[in-house]
Amino acid sequence: MRRPANRQVAGRRSSLRRSLLRFLLMPILALLLLDALVTYNVALHYSNHVHDEDLSDDALTLARMLSNPDFGIALTPQARFLLEYEPGDRNYFAVTSNRRGLLAGNSYLARMANGRGVNGTPALYDGKLDHAGVRVASVQTAARYDASEVLTTTVAETLRDRRRQARQILWLATVMQTLLIACVLALVWFGVRRGLRLLDPLTARLAARTHELTPLDGPDVPVEIVPLTRTIDALFKRLRDMLAVHDRFIADAAHQLRTPLAGLRLHVERAQADPRPETVSDALVHIQQLTQRAARTSTQLLALARAQMPASGDPTQRWIDLAHLVPDAVAQRVHEALGAGVDLGYEGTQQMLGIFGDTAGVLDLLDNLIDNAMRYAGRGSTVTVKLQCRTDGGADLSVEDDGPGVAPEWLPRLSERFFRAPGNHAEGSGLGLAIVQRIVQRHRAELLFQATQPHGLCVLVRFPPAVVPA
Fold first, then answer.
1. pLDDT higher than 60, residue 9
2. 8 A C-beta contact, residue 93 and residue 151
């Protein structure tokens, strides 16, 4: 039986608690190993120091005993046994005279001394006896029974006891440190669990929400989580903006389509009530006009919704050459302008003039400006599209007509949605300049309305400078 897919995904998810503990456990184990090495070396150094002191004392004691005339040079088997005996190990000794040679002990150890330990101070050094490492202490003293005779007393012991004591110290230290680390890990475990519980209020607050997109940031949010909550709040803001655009689009569509739909129903009912051919033909003419109006309104509403979408991180923004784009766009509208009885012309520079923006947005902007000028200027008017380069490197794009114009008091409101200046009877949805305003804002440009003399209107878009790519 196969597991559900969501269980497989959940099984592959990483745990923050396990990640934190794993991140802490590995360095702690490495530190424990390093501490064991350091502890062993320190313990071995301490054990060597203690044994060296004992070994020096043994060499001095034996030298004093042998130089005493009451004791004598000869060693009984019992004394030799005591000097060489060590539980679980073995010691070595040698006594030599500058006059009589080896007096007692190991001859190889006597040769190893080689005149060390002058002036009654033991000399400590390492050596090897019976294929084993030894620590040696040698001291030279004058015999009390004969001042001309110098005795060299050498005592050696193997390193086994030193290392055994160092291992014992390491074992005790490791046990204590392991217990301490276990306690620390337990405290870290409970600390992580308690720290993660600080997220519970935030999780509960999110779970309790239904359609609310208000900010999450609050006094109960830990400082470390603030960047995450701010990122979520920014996402909520973008969602609110998108939902607001969606709601405005629905409201605008309902507002603008209500009238043509009502007209369509009225003319359909009229044709059904009076089936005479002339009545039906007149109704169909009106239905065609209302259908075109509804189609244009829908297109304008979609363009406005597209222009109102958030512009942050727009991947379509790129470098655009207006000197090439604008003349081509104007040329495509000449045939339509001739059909409407409008003289459409272009004045601009031949040199490259660039901005950083969205090609489709700039074309929508220009189409709406030309369409607005031709529609409200009327038949027999002149519409001129101008493109100029400013001294700061920016671009000025203007559409000027010699129509009836707009009174100065209404100029600031021309970019409002559904606003139409009093006195204008041309058909329109009142959305064209609102779309232009939104596109201008996306390009960080400036939109200006100017009355021309003796009559007419000039709409000016001032684009900021753009760096020409290499």
1. no
2. no
